[in-house]
Structure formats: structure tokens, C-alpha cells
Amino acid sequence: MATININFHHSVDKSYYPLFSSHDPFVAIKGARGSGKSWAQAYNVIYEMLRLPYVNWLVIRQYQNTNKESTYNTLKKVINLLGLSDLFKFTVSPLEITMKSTGQKIYFRGMDDPLKITSISAENGYLCRAWWEEAYELKSKEDFQTVVESLRGQLPDGGYYQHILTFNPWSERHWLKEEFFDEETRRNGVLSFTTTYKNNSHLDQQFIDNMMELKKRNPNRARVAVDGEWGIAEGLVFEGLFELENFDISKVQGRHIMGLDFGFTHDPTAFVKAIVKDHDIYVYDGFYETGMLSSPMARKLARSGALRGKVYADSAEPRTIAELQSQGLKTIVPVGKGKDSNVQRMEFMKNFKYHIHPSASFLVDEMSTFAYQKDKFGKFLNKPEDGNDHAIQALGYALEPIIFTNSQGKYMNYRERVKAVNDLGLR
């Protein structure tokens, strides 16, 4: 095989250099938004395959169907950036990347069925590396250990097994913290570190400005998204009421709802689609983007199914609603607002259990840091913090006809809303 010279120091920050030199069995990298941790690990995957002919990779996410648009595409982009696309074969069924000259493979799998992962056997070389992307989504420490134990066997002299975990640390209660970061309880043979947007020189100034704005507006969310620290565990509005699940929406019968919250420079526009079934809400689709003008927003809403039913939107943006309606989206309906309506809406929303599909994982991110305000004595108030709750607000608006519409089909007045919340025993 011809010698291949690659140089990617300009693409990977120095903070990630230990990732390329460590032989520790576990490397855990928690990081903020835009920290470049997934890109650095993607470079590491290709670097190791080129350098070590015995290495095959297993790339794992909680849900298999989320790999193609994330890990698979990232690795494909890195290979192209390195000018090595002729050396690899890319297939989507099965989802694999193969090095042509050696037969080494990158296998993509989900933890939907951990036992299927344990049966994989490399055709050439050894299956001795695993990249656990978005490891925060992993539901079971036991299933994780099952896969870890399945990667075993005698390797060539100098060979070693290694598991790389990359994730955003949304809650300090996650088992990843005690397993890989807490000095008193973490496993032996662990290299763990934290990175932030400061470790990524390829970010534009607007992204950095958004991070600084987030620190001012929502310190709880900024702990994770900006500083890469563990999220809070107390005072969460929706604690215990939401879970990321890979459900089949075609098998869920109930009332379809859609909601829209507007944003622009620093705040995202959030659109959610869900089905209400008794006291369970299945959020199955949507989008979450900053910088959206009304025309591209209208097109994206139309593609997302907003023409198939009413979309309840933030009434504080009448101009945007009018612009969307003028572009054919007559289904956009402003929600009612009144005294304490937002607080009442949040209290009503706590009467449901939320099943959130991976395609709407942005809602999980918000619910993981959406907390109640504190008074000057540190006591939690019955009022949520203002900040990054745009997907939550969109979902609340979507629930408008269920929550605060009276028997005449009109928006409830203040007394009617208070009674509706009290009748549920939430106040």
C-alpha cells in the first residue's frame, strides 16, 4: 500500500490531541455546543484506520436511525476533506464505510437491541474500537457494559481496545458522571475532559455572540451549552415527565396538534408536531432554527405539514403571522394570552407525560434545563425562568385548544383558566 501523508492539525484543536495519543480503555469527552468534539473524534476514527490495519470501528448511538444524518455524514465529510474519498466505499444498506485496500470497516449501530451489536464480527482485522456518540442518550449502563464486554479477544502485539464517548452533559444525575468523571467512583483507565466553543476556531462570530447572549439570558442552559458543565438537577419544571423514545408514530392514535414559537437572531424559531393520547403526548417532528425570515419559514412549515391542520402560534408576533398567512399558510392561528397565561399553561402542561422522538430532541434539551425561578433566599418560586424555552412554548401553544378553550370554542378568561388548572389539582 502506498504511503499516505495527511495533515489535519489545522482542523483539530490542541485540546483534543490526547484523544489521538491515549491508550486508555475509555475516553469520555463532555462538551458544549460547537466544541468540535464530534469532528475531532471523526478525524480520530480515520486516523486510526489508516495507521493501524487491525482496527475496525463500531459507531453507536442510542437509536440506529439517527446515525446516518449524524455520525455517518460527519465521517464522510472528514474523509472528503482529507482527500481520501477514493480509498473508501460508502454504503447505506447496510450503513457502513469500508477501507477498500484492507477491508477494514466502520459499522454503525443503535442500542435499540444491544444483543445484536454483540454478534458483530469484523471480516478483516478486529472490532476493537467503539465511538459512543451523543452518549447522554444512552438509557442503560447495563446495556452499555454488555457491549463493552463483547469487544474482547487477543489483539496483535501492541493492540488495545478503546471506547470513546462524546456528549453534551444535560443532567448531573446521568450515570456517565459517576462512571467517567467523579474521582471517587469513576472506572479505572479513564481519560476524561471537557471542551467548549473556545476549542473550535472554525466558528463564526454570530455563533459566539449567541453563546454570550445565552449566558446572560439563561444561565442554567448556558452551564451545558456554553461551558460544557453538568446541567442542574433541582427545580426542573418537567422533571420526570419526559423521555427520548424511538416510537413508531403511525401506531399512535390520538389528536394531532402543531405549535409555533418565533425567534430570529439569538432565539430559534421552534415548530413542533405531536399527538395527544389521554395524558400522554408523543412529540414526533419539528424544527428549531435561528435567523429564519418569513419566506423560508413559510416554505419549511409547508414542507413540514403545517397546511394539514391548525398551527397555534405566538400572538406577540402578529406581523409574522400575517406574513405567513399572506404566503398561503392560512392555518397559522394566534394563541390567546392574558394575565398569568404562561404560568398557567406550564402548570397545565405538567399534567402530561412527554414521549419525544429523536427527530425532536431539541425539546429534550430544553426540558433538561428549564427550571423554576428562585427568590433572594434561594427558594424556588412557582414561576418558570424566562429564557430558552422556545420549543416548550411551541408545544404549549399547540395544546391551546385542549388547555384553554372553553365549551364555546373561545379562549378562556382569567377566572376560567384558574379554575381549569385548579380542577386538575395543579395549584
TrEMBL record:
Q: Which Pfam families match?
A: Terminase_3 (PF04466), Terminase_3C (PF17288)
The chain positions of domain Phage terminase large subunit N-terminal read 29-229
Q: Which domain of life is it from?
A: Bacteria
What are the coiled-coil residue ranges? Answer: none
Question: What sequence ranges are listed for the domain Phage terminase large subunit C-terminal?
Answer: 261-400
Q: What is this protein called?
A: PBSX family phage terminase large subunit
